Amino acid sequence: MSVTSGKTKPSLTQEILSHLGLANKTAAWGTLGTLRTFLSFSVDKDVQRLLRAIAGQGVDHSAIVGVLTNRSREQRQLISRAFQERTQQDLRKSLQAALSGSLERIVMALLQPAAQFDAQELRTALKSSGSPEDVAVEIFATRSPAQLQECLMVYKHNFQVEAEEDIKSETSGILQELLLALAKGGRESYSGIIDYNLVEQDVQALKQAEGPSTEGTWVLIFTQRNPEHLVRVFDQYQRCTGHELEKTVHHIFHGDAQKALLSLVSVIRNTPLYFADKLHQALQNLKPNYQVLMRILISRSETDLLSIRAEFKKKFGKSLYSSLQEAVKGDCRSALLALCRAEDL
Asked: Which residues form the signal peptide (predicted)?
């Protein structure tokens, strides 16, 4: 049985905005990101600010952070091109020579196109001695199909190898199957139709896939179905079994495959909460995990960082901003706080 969801009539505000030139510029009219398109943007003024910050007596860190954390990624790319045209110098190389440590890494990441940033993070994770599933699932499961496709194209161009080949060489078993399936980007899109028959079929398939050699069923369902469908599958599974699906994942799977599947369930259930948990974990170590903090705050700053902040405060009883203030030290502190933007009271 299928039921088509009714379409909501646009509000009066939406109708008015649809006739305005800025209607499609979500950053101008409100977004779930903390970093918005700077409406008084002047590429020439920004180039001059950065030149003064680099060439003056002592590097002006606050000026550099002030420019780059208050411009959208698109605007930062315009600044980079204009800097090259006006000075015959590469902005990234100039700033790299002027900065060091964590602040240097953040500034370099801010100046990269999104696909290049994701490709580099993915490559580093796959080639590191640690477990690659954390970063790989984050990128494969939270980027749009177009973003993922561009990331994989950049990966091949920059490293002269397909990401899938690196996954095959660096992982094995169910984890490999899961990452390869996610990398294909073959997840169904939500059509607005709730297929209750398919929900029940998937629940029964997962209940029966609890023995040896049945892991492929989990990979297929988790990587092919759309998130709206999967949330209903998770809820129905709990009603039928009396426990959350995560308990079964803990029972059947082990090691990196278990971690990857649990991360994927978390993304599907509530993506902002998934990122809030990752940020909280990154702040718990004696020395914060700056790479995780940087990757999430930069990649989500124009997407849903306000939602992530709200989930962080709700779950941990303390704002993300205050947590960063307390845990982060050094030059990169101001940049991370600027991306987070503000306190949540």
From this structure: none
pLDDT digits (tens, 9 = 90+) for 65-106: 999 999 999 999 999 999 999 999 999 999 999 999 999 999
Task: Using DSSP, state whether 325 is helix, strand or coil.
Answer: helix
Whole-model pTM: value is 0.89
Whether the CA torsion 120, 122, 126, 128 is positive or negative: it is positive
Q: Are 335 and 70 in contact (CB under 8 A)?
A: no
Per-residue model confidence (pLDDT) at position 184: 94
Q: Please give the structure tokens belonging to residue 239.
A: 């009603």
Distance from CA of residue 237 to its chain's centroid?
28
Cα distances from 179 to residues 70, 103, 166, 171, in angstroms, run 35, 31, 11, 9
Name every residue whose Cβ is closer than 8 Å to that of residue 244 and which is 6 or more positions away in sequence.
234, 237, 238
Buried b (16+ CB within 10 A) or exposed e, 214-241: ebeebbebbbebeebbbebbbebbeeee
Of 272, 261, 273, residue with least CA distance to 234: 261
**210 φ, ψ (degrees, to nearest 5):** -115, 10
DSSP assignment string, 116-174 = HHHHHHHHHHHHSSS-SHHHHHHHHHHS-HHHHHHHHHHHHHHHSS-HHHHHHHH--HH
Closest CA to 50 of 111, 94, 104: 94
Residues 207, 176 contacting (CB under 8 angstroms): no
Distance (Å, whole) CA 328 – CA 157: 35
Those residues with Cβ within 8 angstroms of residue 295's Cβ, 6 or more apart along the chain or in another chain:
109, 117, 121, 135, 138
